[in-house]
Specification:
Its main location: membrane. Probable transporter of a GTP-driven Fe(2+) uptake system. Belongs to the TRAFAC class TrmE-Era-EngA-EngB-Septin-like GTPase superfamily. FeoB GTPase (TC 9.A.8) family. This protein is an alpha/beta fold and 844 residues long. The protein folds into five domains: 3-79, SH3 type barrels; 106-290, P-loop containing nucleotide triphosphate hydrolases (Rossmann fold, 3-Layer(aba) Sandwich); 301-370, no CATH class; 418-564 and 577-611, no CATH class; 649-843, no CATH class. Helix content is 57%, strand content 9%. It is built from 34 helices and 16 strands. The protein has a six-stranded antiparallel sheet with strand order 5-1-2-3-4-16. A six-stranded mixed sheet has the order 7-8-6-9-10-12, with helices on both faces. Strand 7 and strand 8 (161-167) form a beta hairpin. The longest helix has 35 residues, at 628-662. It is elongated.
């Protein structure tokens, strides 16, 4: 039978893995090898993908991919005994874990030798937590694959060394299956390779995590293993002789709890013991002749070993790879049909083609003798080696008890409740963002207004006063008031990521995403796009298929990032004042963004990116309670970026918009207006009527001045294009200014509208009122609820910010993809808004 036929709750043993290419290689390296036990947990709400448990971790596969895996049902009598694998061994004493104390006296840091340490491990193993604890950096820690989307560097001073720590993306193996994995292997084996690799593994999932450790050892790299999450392992009360496993693998192993920093002192002591010239490393692990850690040689069996030996000799003979460890690892990679190694041999060595021919001959011989692929035999041998080592050192319990993760997944991935729970969480997130954020927003709003009044009162009239009050305070202040909503939004996103729920959302959405032309893994970058499109674009590296990556990048700008939130809050608050109406409007905009993204993806997949369909293989990490430190780091990092944008892009844009709206000064028209004001003041009219006429004259002049200003002329040029959407020239100016950053739309509105009247000190409440009362030349209101909604739609869909376009061009490998995203989004925004507005006119 195949794996897809396995009923929910049933167990089986893997007999054979079918398929070909990258998918087969990835699935083998994740532990789907002959003889491994696997259990079907349950189906996604749409019956696809399927949730399985293998090697003590959870993974999801699409049904059609599971059909390629042949299994044999596991009868109840075949299952292991509940009490474990038989040993009466006592538990080893718990190790004493100490936090890391950084070296003081950094003034002498320039004289210290530097050790470059690469952090490497599976996704969700706690690598970035170690990086943050050790270096004091503030990287986001998420409980799903793809958080670290590029290498981050930090450093500490410890034990007489400057330790430079490089946090690499999480990976299951060193096979170049995705751009991240290719980057990792190139980095750790390239000319600027690190001095040491710190391999972080999840102690609760030894068998799967140790696969990467073996690959690192086979490359001859100096490796220290951090046995992370050791507190969770201790709670399981299982026997684990990790010092013995350390000696079997020839690699130091140190228990740690990275999220709290426990064990890091011993870990970095071990790291320093492996520094060049230091001879304090464990003599049972150290090879005195080579001056390095003892190498690891995995036996690949009587069929493969002669082929590996033969190819190894040829590699040493026809290349400069004379080191036996490097030559052997190259031979193994050749047998695995590693395209990156093949390319390097062909480009660097004249006899590279000969080596590939020798490899092809060996594989042909293997196919005739065993009818098996070398990569499957190699993966089987590695997992066999791991199983043998763990049998001697580790005694797992087989209690049969369901874990907390199992019980939670029964609810949140249930076929009936999965989707409603997801939609309810999203709706609750947006409601809290709008409703709870209103209170601190009002306080900041009041502070901005008071600041404008105070500054305006102490400065003399003139261009400088107008610049400070109308340009800087009104522009930047009009955006900074939305900081509470930004913080609340990121708080919710961080909670979903760190808890592990985000991976479940991708699981339940995969079939729907697949039908819409997107990969299941695309869902995580799309959700991240609600925060900021730039890191979301970078996180598409977790998607192995280039075509799927490109499609995801191109539709990501339709996800409503936090920069658009101030526009939504301003207009929905002004024209949909009832809280439930504003919440509904906000939710509909996010939902429309998602629908436009998936429809665009469907269009792109059926035209430009036809043909490729990459399997969905994704780990579902165990649920973990998010730490306050991790949440605060994530929220503070994003809030800081928002505040930095206040002081750079938005400040510059506000000043530029003010300048273009302030000049030319129209002195002749001003003089005429002043004469009329003086005439009114000298008249015998009642004071109330006098003030009304003066206000009318001031307002008429302000409108005339804005229309004749630089920005007004730009707006009038764009008006014929946007008039069919219900927009006037002022809205056109705001749209043009938003090309730099979407927050600038609100600051531009603040400058344009608050600059048209009394003091230029109105904040959000006054700005909302001014927009509600704004009239066109024919006396009709400039803004109506439908115009406001259409304007928000346009801001949602049109031109991504400059930073997002740069990120798309960089990640896609060519600027033309960024240009395509800009043109496509603008055209689509105009079309959608035209349909919405004109339809509303027809319906009355």
């Amino acid at each position: 039978m195949n794996l897809a036929q396995l009923k929910t709750g049933d167990k089986a043993v893997i007999v054979r893995v079918g398929g070909s290419g990258a998918f087969r290689k990835r699935i083998l390296e994740m532990g789907f090898v002959q003889g491994k036990e696997i259990m079907s947990v349950h189906n996604a709400p749409l019956k696809d993908p399927i949730y399985y448990k293998i090697l003590d971790y959870n993974v999801s596969l699409r049904r059609k991919d599971a059909e390629l895996i042949e299994v044999r049902p596991l009868e109840p009598l075949m299952e292991p005994r509940p009490e474990g694998q038989g040993g009466d061994e006592e538990l080893l004493p718990e190790p004493q874990l100490h936090s890391l104390h950084r070296m003081q006296g950094r003034a002498q840091a320039g004289t210290l030798p530097t050790l470059r340490i690469a952090l490497l491990g599976n996704p969700n193993c706690g690598k970035t937590s170690l990086f943050n604890q050790a270096s004091g950096a503030h990287e986001h820690v998420g409980n799903y694959s793809g958080v670290t989307v590029e290498a981050k560097t930090g450093h500490i001073y410890y034990g007489g060394y400057r330790l430079e720590i490089i946090d690499l993306p999480g990976t299951y193996s060193l096979s170049p299956y995705s751009p991240e994995e290719l980057y990792i292997r190139s980095y750790i084996t390239g000319d600027e390779r690190p001095d040491l690799v710190l391999n972080v593994i999840d102690t609760c999932n030894l068998e799967r995590n140790l696969y990467l450790t073996l690959q690192l050892k086979e490359l001859g790299l100096p490796v220290v293993v951090a046995l992370n999450m050791f507190d969770e392992f201790i709670a399981r009360k299982e026997y684990f002789d990790y010092p013995r496993l350390s000696r079997l693998l020839g690699v130091p192993m140190i228990p740690t709890v990275c999220r709290t920093g426990l064990g890091l002192e011993a870990l970095f002591d071990e790291v320093i013991s492996l520094a060049p010239g230091i001879k304090s490393a464990d003599p049972q692990l150290f090879d005195p002749e080579r001056g390095k850690l003892r190498p690891l040689r995995i036996p690949y069996g009587s069929t493969l070993e002669p082929m590996i030996e033969e190819l190894t000799e040829k590699v040493k003979e026809h290349t400069t790879l004379h080191d036996p460890i490097l030559a052997r690892s190259t031979a193994i990679k050749l047998l695995e049909r590693d395209e990156d190694i093949e390319s390097q041999l062909l480009h660097r060595y004249a006899r590279g083609g000969f080596l590939l021919s020798a490899r092809d001959f060996a594989l042909h011989r293997l196919k005739e003798e065993r009818s098996e692929e070398a990569e499957a035999l190699i993966t089987d041998a590695r997992y066999g080696f791991i199983s043998g080592a763990l049998k001697e050192t580790y005694r797992p319990k087989h209690s049969g008890k369901r874990t907390l993760t199992d019980r939670i997944d029964d609810i949140v991935t249930h076929r009936l409740w999965g989707f409603p729970i997801f939609l309810a969480l999203m709706a609750f997130m947006f409601f809290c963002t709008f409703a709870l954020g209103q209170y601190p927003m009002d306080l900041i709003d009041l502070g901005v207004a008071k600041l404008g009044e105070w500054v305006g009162g102490i400065m003399a009239d003139g261009p400088l006063r107008d610049l400070i009050v109308d340009g800087v305070i009104a522009g930047v202040g009009g955006v900074i008031v939305f900081l509470p909503q930004i913080i609340i939004l990121y708080l919710f996103i961080s909670l979903l990521e760190d808890s592990g729920y985000m991976a479940r959302a991708a699981f339940i959405m995969d079939k729907l995403m697949h039908k819409m032309g997107l990969h299941g893994k695309s869902f995580i970058p799309l959700i991240m796009g609600f925060g900021c499109n730039v890191p979301a674009v970078m996180s598409t590296r977790m998607i192995e298929s280039r075509k799927s990556r490109l499609v995801t990048m191109l539709v990501l700008p339709f996800m409503s990032c936090s920069a658009r939130l101030p526009v939504y809050i301003l207009l929905s608050g002004a024209f949909f004042p009832i809280p439930w109406q504003a919440t509904l409007v906000l939710f509909s905009l996010y939902l429309i963004g998602v629908l436009v993204a998936v429809c665009s993806a469907r269009l792109l997949k059926s035209t430009t990116f036809k043909g490729e369909d990459i399997p969905f293989v994704m780990e579902l990490p165990p649920y973990r309670t998010p730490t306050a430190r991790s949440i605060l780091i994530h929220v503070w990092t994003r809030a800081k970026q928002y505040l930095q944008k206040m002081g750079t892009v938005i400040l510059a844009a506000s000043i530029l918009v003010w300048f273009m709206s302030y000049y030319p000064r129209q002195n002749d028209a001003r003089a005429v207006k002043d004469q009329k004001v003086e005439a009114v003041q000298a008249s015998l009219l009642p004071e109330v009527e006098k003030q009304a006429q003066v206000d009318s004259l001031e307002h008429a002049f302000a409108i005339y001045h804005q229309e004749q200003s630089i920005i007004g002329r730009i707006g009038h040029i764009s008006e014929p294009i946007i008039r069919p959407l219900g927009f006037d020239w002022k809205m056109g100016v705001s749209i043009v200014s938003g090309l730099m950053a979407k927050e600038v739309v609100v600051s531009t509105m603040g400058v344009i509208y608050t600059g048209s009247g009394d003091d230029g000190e109105e904040a959000v409440a006054q700005l909302s009122e001014r927009m509600r009362t704004e009239r066109r030349a024919d006396g009709s209101p400039s803004f109506t609820p439908i115009v406001a909604y259409t304007f928000m739609l346009f801001v949602l869909l049109y031109f991504p910010c400059i930073a997002t376009l740069i990120a798309i061009g960089r990640e896609a490998g060519h600027w033309r993809w960024g240009a395509f995203a800009a043109v496509y989004s603008c055209a689509l925004a105009w079309l959608v808004c035209f349909i919405v507005y004109q339809t509303s006119l027809l319906l009355g």
